[in-house]
Amino acid sequence: VYNFSAGPAVLPESVLREVQEEMMCLPGAGASLLEISHRDKLFIEILQDAESTLRSLLGISDDYSVMFMQGGATLQFSAVAANLLRGTGKKAEYLLTGSWGKKAIEEAKKEGNVGVLFDAAKTNYDRLPTASDYSCPDDAAYLYYCSNETIQGVQFASEPECPDSVPLVSDASSDFLCRPLPIDRYGLVYACAQKNAGPAGVTVVVMRKDLIDIADENIPGYLHYKNHHENESEWNTPPTFAIYVLGKVARWLRDDIGGLANMEDINRQKSESLYKIIDESNGFYRGHAQTDCRSLMNVTFNLPSEELTTKFVAEAGSHRLAALKGHRSVGGIRASIYNAMPREGVEALGNFMTDFASRNG
Ligand code: PLP
């Protein structure tokens, strides 16, 4: 089955095979990785290797801390604001471009003063702001955005305009590692792993070290980035299995794919082939995102009716094309084509879409 799920999602086949091979007995351990302590030298090496592979993939300098946390991307909605907003007397500014940004704002409001500089609600979150749509004050606690809104399928092509004095914060959960990322433009980037980076259970946080000390000492210990940074992601038991698989995915990207620029080329080819079918369908398929905001990862589109949408999902299922139903808040179809979705899977979906339109258009 080709699995178009928005997450947890496909993993590279070679990674799954390696994990299967090592599941009963991790080389050198005499036990499964699932059975060894997070303080065991073998696991520490796995964690350090995952971090250094990520650092080399993304070009992350020593000015940044890389932390592996639990709680999903959702905990980061609170953690970001608890660390960088609570007690500062400042206002945090948000660009609201979809469902995940909205949830992040709800949580941040519990921590302090929040402003929304841009809200795409009027056009049902089909577009992104340009520099002329907003202006971020120089003294904001941070400017927050979601680089790829998974539900709507809108993705920033590059970083939004942000004053040098303001830390830029990104929820990169659904496009992390899909292309090179200029980390030095950011104060903080976080991503849950279960789309592009590994299994559910681990969230990667990349944070500029000089921001780590801003937080009030009284915030809950788990939320406090300083605890994770100072203890090298071992403040408590980290999600050992998820970190182990994430390290293998990062290695696959570096060694098999040849790095993030290559991955971006592949992702562009895959997504463009589907958008082309949408654009050439004479209005049978209507993309949700405006053309210049389209996501490389989540291709969202509608069909002429609810009945045809149901039929599309059912027929696709019998062609072994799974999990294509759009999110309930947007409807239609969503094809999530993360890094590990093979070209053949996208090609099979494209052929099905063309055939379905010709039979039902
Ligand atoms: N942010 C984005 C962009 C997402 O796509 C998701 C999950 O789909 C989340 C946040 C929430 O992630 P989690 O379920 O790990 O809390």
Automatic annotation (TrEMBL):
Main location, first listed in the record: cytoplasm
Record-linked InterPro entries: Aminotrans_V_dom, Aminotrans_V_PyrdxlP_BS, Pser_aminoTfrase, PyrdxlP-dep_Trfase, PyrdxlP-dep_Trfase_major, PyrdxlP-dep_Trfase_small
One Gene Ontology term from the biological process aspect of the record: pyridoxine biosynthetic process
EC id: 2.6.1.52
Domain Aminotransferase class V span(s) in chain numbering: 1-349
Pathway stated in the Swiss-Prot or TrEMBL entry: Amino-acid biosynthesis; L-serine biosynthesis; L-serine from 3-phospho-D-glycerate: step 2/3; Cofactor biosynthesis; pyridoxine 5'-phosphate biosynthesis; pyridoxine 5'-phosphate from D-erythrose 4-phosphate: step 3/5
Enzyme class: transferase
GO cellular component terms, semicolon-separated: cytoplasm
Cofactor(s) needed for function: pyridoxal 5'-phosphate
PROSITE patterns: AA_TRANSFER_CLASS_5 (PS00595)
Catalytic activity: 4-(phosphooxy)-L-threonine + 2-oxoglutarate = (R)-3-hydroxy-2-oxo-4-phosphooxybutanoate + L-glutamate; O-phospho-L-serine + 2-oxoglutarate = 3-phosphooxypyruvate + L-glutamate
Sequence positions that bind L-glutamate: R39
Cofactor note: Binds 1 pyridoxal phosphate per subunit.
Sequence positions bearing N6-(pyridoxal phosphate)lysine: K195
Residue ranges of the TM segments: none
Keywords carried by this UniProt record: Amino-acid biosynthesis, Aminotransferase, Cytoplasm, Pyridoxal phosphate, Pyridoxine biosynthesis, Serine biosynthesis, Transferase
Localisation: Cytoplasm
Pfam families, per database record: Aminotran_5 (PF00266)
Self-association and partners: Homodimer.
Role of this protein: Catalyzes the reversible conversion of 3-phosphohydroxypyruvate to phosphoserine and of 3-hydroxy-2-oxo-4-phosphonooxybutanoate to phosphohydroxythreonine.
Protein name: Phosphoserine aminotransferase
High-level lineage: Bacteria, Pseudomonadati, Planctomycetota, Planctomycetia, Pirellulales
Gene: serC
